[in-house]
Design a protein that fits this description.
15 helices, 0% strand, mainly alpha
Length: 292
C-alpha cells in the first residue's frame, strides 16, 4: 500500500469516527450546553496530545513565521466554525444539519486548488459530485423534504459552519503539512479550550460546568475520544492524499449512521434512500481506488 492509499484509509477512519461522534456531540450539547461541550472536547484533545508535542513546541515558535500565521488563522477559523457546528447540532435535526455540512467539500477543494495549486481530475470531480448527491438522497426521508430542510431549524447555522469548516479543513491540512498533524491538532485544541474556558469563567458558568462534566462524563468521553481520533486521522490523511478527496471521503460519515440504523435498529429505508446509499458507497470506493 503506497502513502496515498494510507491517507485514503485514514480518511475512512475519520469518516467512521465522525459518523458515530456527531451523535454524541448532539447528545452532549443538549445535556450541558454548546460552549461547555466544546470546552471539554478540546481540553481532552490538548491533554491527550500534549505528551507527543511538548518537545517540538520550542522549534515551532522559533521556526518559520509562515507556520505560526497559518496555525493562528486555523485556530480562529476552527473555533468559530466549531461554535456554529455545536449550536446547529443543539437546535437542529441531525439529518438536516449533516446534509448541509456537505458544503465543506467544495470549499476545501477550492482553497486547495487556489492556494496550493492542488488539482484533482475531471473523473474525481464527477465522483465527488455523485458522492455528495448520494448523501443528500440518503438523508431525505421523503423526496419532497429538500425544500423543508432548507428552512429547517439550525440549517442556516449549519450552512455558515460548513463554509467556515471547509476553510478550517483546508487550513488543518496545510498546517499539518508545514508542521505535523499532531502539533496542528494540539495548538488548535489548546486555543479553543482556553477561549471557551475564559468565556465560561466570565459568564460564571465554569464551576457549574465541572459539575455537569462529572455527571455526564461517559457521553462526554465518548464524544471526545471519537472526535479526536477523527481529527488526527483526518490531519494525517491530508498530508498523504489530496485535500479535496480526503474531505469528500471523510464527509461520507452519514453512510455510517444509515448502516448502523439498518443493522442495529432494523430500520427500513425508502427506494430513493437505497439509491443514494448505493451511489454514495460506490462513488466513495471508486474515488478511493483511483486516487494516486
Amino acid at each position: 500500500m503506497d502513502i496515498v492509499h494510507v491517507g485514503i484509509a485514514l480518511a475512512f477512519v475519520a469518516m467512521l469516527c465522525w459518523g458515530m461522534g456527531d451523535f454524541f456531540i448532539q447528545k452532549s450539547v443538549r445535556k450541558i450546553g454548546d460552549w461547555e461541550a466544546l470546552f471539554f472536547c478540546t481540553l481532552f484533545g490538548a491533554l491527550v496530545l500534549s505528551p507527543f508535542v511538548y518537545k517540538n513546541l520550542p522549534k515551532l515558535f522559533t521556526g518559520s513565521p509562515e507556520i505560526i500565521i497559518i496555525l493562528a488563522i486555523l485556530c480562529l477559523v476552527l473555533f468559530i466554525a466549531a461554535i456554529f457546528d455545536f449550536k446547529a447540532l443543539k437546535v437542529g435535526k441531525l439529518v438536516a444539519v449533516e446534509t448541509t455540512w456537505s458544503f465543506e467539500v467544495p470549499v476545501s477543494a477550492l482553497l486547495a486548488f487556489l492556494i496550493l495549486k492542488e488539482q484533482i481530475n475531471l473523473f474525481q470531480i464527477i465522483l465527488i459530485v455523485l458522492l455528495l448527491s448520494g448523501l443528500v438522497l440518503v438523508s431525505l426521508q421523503n423526496k419532497i423534504e429538500l425544500r423543508k430542510i432548507i428552512f429547517e431549524k439550525g440549517v442556516k447555522l449549519a450552512f455558515f459552519a460548513a463554509i467556515l469548516m471547509g476553510g478550517a479543513n483546508f487550513l488543518m491540512g496545510w498546517s499539518s503539512r508545514l508542521s505535523d498533524p499532531i502539533t496542528a491538532n494540539f495548538i488548535s485544541d489548546l486555543f479553543i479550550a482556553v477561549v471557551t474556558g475564559i468565556y465560561l469563567l466570565v459568564k460564571g458558568k465554569f464551576w457549574r460546568a465541572w459539575k455537569d462534566f462529572r455527571s455526564n462524563k461517559k457521553v462526554l468521553l465518548q464524544m471526545s475520544i471519537l472526535d479526536k481520533v477523527a481529527w488526527v486521522a483526518f490531519a494525517f490523511a491530508m498530508t498523504l492524499a489530496p485535500i479535496g478527496v480526503v474531505v469528500a471521503l471523510s464527509e461520507s460519515y452519514i453512510i455510517i449512521a444509515v448502516i448502523l440504523g439498518l443493522a442495529v435498529n432494523k430500520e427500513k429505508i425508502k427506494s430513493h434512500q437505497k439509491l443514494g446509499l448505493i451511489l454514495s458507497i460506490a462513488s466513495a470506493i471508486i474515488l478511493a481506488s483511483i486516487t494516486n
